[in-house]
């Protein structure tokens, strides 16, 4: 880096500093990116169970739901057009995440958050005012652009602003914000469903603009991260002094020499090793990070959680609950998810990532198997299921959501955001987000068809994946708690398997 004296990185992992209000407020604002994502997940599942919404945009589904007694309970909501409404967002998010990588790399984390909030704001307005299916899908696509940019930049922002020993809690606030957004959506759906005149779904869709407006306005005032400023200081050297002043403010102390030295050293490597991030991450020494950037988001989606999130109201209607009861049940699962994520924030830096992954995986596996058994025995193609068994399924889903929210929910964002060296961090996060969106799209697009054909077996399908991913974490994921981002590459050199590759 021209004009800089680059020292050797420190051997002291305990950087000076404390949790300041400046960091807390900055991260709270950035985490609004999680709120818009969670709101959309919750709102799409709710409105697709509202009869006026189905009657206006998906009349064939509405007819099957209320009047066709020949259709299997598992197939009432099977519609390619209906799944396209839900999944179109993730196609846009998949594409947007790659553009977000370049923006984040060249101009910092803040502009990407700003673009994400603005796109989501416009998409919510179009969705709320939709007059036909084309406007509805256009709004979903813009929401996807917003979520793609926000999901690429916000986890990086949170990880880079936090002290290493508190990074897990700060980054898990992203998943907590997703839970807050989903709960808000479920509560709004429950209220708007009761609006006379059948236009309550418009309120549900348009209200997404509120958190998007807060994120967009707040992003203007957000500082960028010291890591990003130093990374870009090779072309604008005055950014280095700005980064040091910002780091002092972020840490609440003027003694930041050890940390600034490690940041400069990491940035020096990133500008002299390989200018092309994509070719760099494909090299042998980055193989563990590349595998994790693909495997973790893939596994996160095949837990089946987004099936619960997208289609919970439809699933509850499938097992015999009414429209209002289905939406209220989604509110309950929202509370469980948010509360469990908060607990994960408190304990992740104490017990570590691996322990929560394994515990949550075991809990989810048991719940998936039990749900599958109950539905296999008591829910046939025709006729209903008793309210007692329906509520047993509801309780099992709540326990399953608790397991996910303690583990794969928050940690699926935390671990990928903290394992990359600075020179591949932006592209690595983009791969993570893209893989997440790709498989979210595939599962959202195929679930109702799979439910129709697999029936109760769908839960055994996802349960099998949970068992596989838990074994993967046990054997292949090293512990990352308390390790500074700039020294994260050392964990692979000491791992029983990855050391054979990176060394």
Structure keywords:
single chain, 503 residues, mainly alpha
> Biggest β-sheet, characterized?
none
Unreliable runs: 1-12
The end-to-end distance, rounded to whole angstroms, is: 27 Å
What portion of residues belong to β-strands?
under 5%
**Kindly state the mean pLDDT as a whole number?**
84
Q: Using the CA coordinates, give the radius of gyration.
A: 23 Å
- The number of helical segments is 24
Q: Would you count the extended β strands for me?
A: 0
Shape: globular
Helix content: over 70%
Encode the helix/strand succession as letters.
HHHHHHHHHHHHHHHHHHHHHHHH
Which secondary-structure class do the elements indicate?
Answer: mainly alpha
Description:
This protein has helices spanning 21-30, 32-47, 51-57, 59-67, 80-107, 109-128, 133-161, 167-192, 200-206, 209-221, 226-231, 238-251, 257-272, 277-281, 287-301, 305-318, 323-351, 353-378, 387-406, 408-418, 422-454, 457-476, 490-493, 499-502. It is mostly helical. Helix 8 crosses helix 20, helix 15 runs antiparallel to helix 20 and helix 18 (353-378) packs antiparallel against helix 22 (457-476). The protein is globular. 56% of the residues are buried.
Task: Give a brief rundown of this model.
The protein is an all-alpha fold and 503 residues long. Helices cover 76% and strands 0% of the residues.
Write the layout of secondary structure elements.
Layout: H1 21-30, H2 32-47, H3 51-57, H4 59-67, H5 80-107, H6 109-128, H7 133-161, H8 167-192, H9 200-206, H10 209-221, H11 226-231, H12 238-251, H13 257-272, H14 277-281, H15 287-301, H16 305-318, H17 323-351, H18 353-378, H19 387-406, H20 408-418, H21 422-454, H22 457-476, H23 490-493, H24 499-502
């Amino acid at each position: 880096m021209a004009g800089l004296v680059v020292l050797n990185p420190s051997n002291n992992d305990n950087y000076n500093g404390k949790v300041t209000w400046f960091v807390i407020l900055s991260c709270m604002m950035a985490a609004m990116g999680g709120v818009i994502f969670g709101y959309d997940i919750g709102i799409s599942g709710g409105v697709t169970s509202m009869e006026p919404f189905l009657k206006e945009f998906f009349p064939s589904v509405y007819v099957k739901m209320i009047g066709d007694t020949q259709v299997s309970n598992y197939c009432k909501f099977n519609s390619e057009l209906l799944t396209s409404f839900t999944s179109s967002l993730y196609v846009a998010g998949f594409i947007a995440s790659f553009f977000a990588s370049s923006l984040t790399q060249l101009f910092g984390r803040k502009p990407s958050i700003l673009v994400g909030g603005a796109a989501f704001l416009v998409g919510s307005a179009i969705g709320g005012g939709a007059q036909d299916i084309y406007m509805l899908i256009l709004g979903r696509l813009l929401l996807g652009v917003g979520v793609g940019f926000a999901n690429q930049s916000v986890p990086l922002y949170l990880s880079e602003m936090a002290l290493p020993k508190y990074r897990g809690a700060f980054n898990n606030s992203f998943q907590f914000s997703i839970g807050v957004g989903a709960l808000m959506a479920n509560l709004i759906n429950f209220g708007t469903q009761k609006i006379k005149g059948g236009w309550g779904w418009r309120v549900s869709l348009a209200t997404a603009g509120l958190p998007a407006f807060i994120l967009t306005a707040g992003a203007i005032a957000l500082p960028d991260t010291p890591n990003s400023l130093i990374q870009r200081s090779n072309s604008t050297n005055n950014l280095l002094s700005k980064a040091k002043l910002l780091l002092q403010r972020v840490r609440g102390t003027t003694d930041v020499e050890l940390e600034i030295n490690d940041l400069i050293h990491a940035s020096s490597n990133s500008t002299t090793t390989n200018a092309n991030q994509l070719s760099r991450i494909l090299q042998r020494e980055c193989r563990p990070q590349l595998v994790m950037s693909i495997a973790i988001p893939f596994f996160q989606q095949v837990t089946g959680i987004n099936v619960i999130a997208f289609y919970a109201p439809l699933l509850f209607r499938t097992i015999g609950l009414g429209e209002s009861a289905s939406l209220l049940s989604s509110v309950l699962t929202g509370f469980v998810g948010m509360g469990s994520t908060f607990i994960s924030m408190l304990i992740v830096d104490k017990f570590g990532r691996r322990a929560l992954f394994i515990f949550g995986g075991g809990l989810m596996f048991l719940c998936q198997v039990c749900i599958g058994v109950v539905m296999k025995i008591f829910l046939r193609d025709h006729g209903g299921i008793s309210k007692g068994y329906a509520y047993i399924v509801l309780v099992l889903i709540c326990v399953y959501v608790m397991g996910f929210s303690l583990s794969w929910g928050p940690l699926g964002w935390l671990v990928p955001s903290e394992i990359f060296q600075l020179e591949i961090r932006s592209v690595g996060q983009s791969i993570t987000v893209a893989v997440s969106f790709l498989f979210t799209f595939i599962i959202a697009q195929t679930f109702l068809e799979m439910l129709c054909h697999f029936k109760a077996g769908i839960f055994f399908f996802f349960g099998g994946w949970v068992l596989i991913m838990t074994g993967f974490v046990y054997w292949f994921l090293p512990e990352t708690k308390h390790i500074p981002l700039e020294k994260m590459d050392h964990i692979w050199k000491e791992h029983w398997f990855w050391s054979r590759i990176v060394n």
